[in-house]
Amino acid sequence: MLIALLTDLHANREAVSACLAHAQEQNVSQYAFLGDLVGYGADPAWVLDTVMDYASRGAYVLMGNHDIALIQEDRKGMNPIAFQVVEWTRSQLNEEHLAFIRNLPYRIEVQDMLLVHANAWAPEKWEYVEGTMEATRSMHATKAHITFCGHVHMPTLYHMTLTGKTGEFLPAPENSIPLSKQRRWLVIPGSVGQPRDGNPAACYATFDTVTLELTYYRIPYDAETASAKIITCGLPASLGQRLITGN
């Protein structure tokens, strides 16, 4: 089974469309959306409608911190830009969208894999995996051979040896990486809708559950249109500019 792993879509219709079209060309048979379907971008309803359609056909979908913010009444401590985006996003959605979000899980276990948005040790607290220390903590918190997570908008791969030593690897796009059973793995595909590694191309990954091969992809898309739509909606211009620069 070839799984497409897409995370941090952030209401970016152009990026999501490009990644899904590319995944279809790879003959993907299963999809996993690792949270943060909304936030920052101009097309939350379209992205949710699309993901809901995939979910109706068996796709895995997780809760992200931007998703849960839509259904929380107490948003004290949220920075002003994030608060503005949440309020605007809620105004674009209907009750069906919100009901779908309310029912999203924080974690999904499939075969020898764990899917989470943020980390394995406390997925509902949204702490980041920003280096080998957090990656080790996350891998120790599960018995799964491979953990797939998002939240961090930069594609990264961590591995832990049988002796507990953790290494970090920055994957090159379109290179097949065999995930040996002799190690534990934590896979961060990078963000579909808002990359932050200096490359504006959308990120996603595929994993073959038979050959255990992981492949990262960078997908160019119409970031100029996505950026302009953010500004037209009255959202902060910085969010649009970020799509152009990838930072």
β-strand amount? 15-25%
Radius of gyration: 17 Å
Classified by CATH, the class is Alpha Beta
The CATH homologous superfamily is called Metallo-dependent phosphatases
Shape: globular
CATH names the topology as: Purple Acid Phosphatase, chain A, domain 2
InterPro entries: Ap4A_hydrolase, Calcineurin-like_PHP_lpxH, Metallo-depent_PP-like, Pesterase_MJ0912
Pfam families: Metallophos_2
Family: Belongs to the metallophosphoesterase superfamily. YfcE family.
Organism: Undibacterium piscinae
Describe the structure.
Residues 1-210 form the Calcineurin-like phosphoesterase domain. The chain has 247 residues and is an alpha/beta fold. The chain has helices at 13-25, 44-56, 65-69, 80-92, 95-102, 132-140, 223-232, 237-245, and strands at 2-6, 30-33, 60-61, 107-110, 113-116, 146-148, 156-160, 166-169, 177-178, 184-188, 202-208, 213-219. The protein has a single domain (2-245), classed as Metallo-dependent phosphatases (Purple Acid Phosphatase, chain A, domain 2), CATH 3.60.21.10. The strands form 2 sheets. Strands 3-2-1-11-12-9 form a 6-stranded mixed beta sheet. Strands 4-5-6-10-7-8 form a 6-stranded mixed beta sheet, with helices on one face. Strand 1, helix 1 and strand 2 form a beta-alpha-beta unit.
What's this entry about, in short?
The protein is of the alpha/beta class. It has 8 helices and 12 strands.
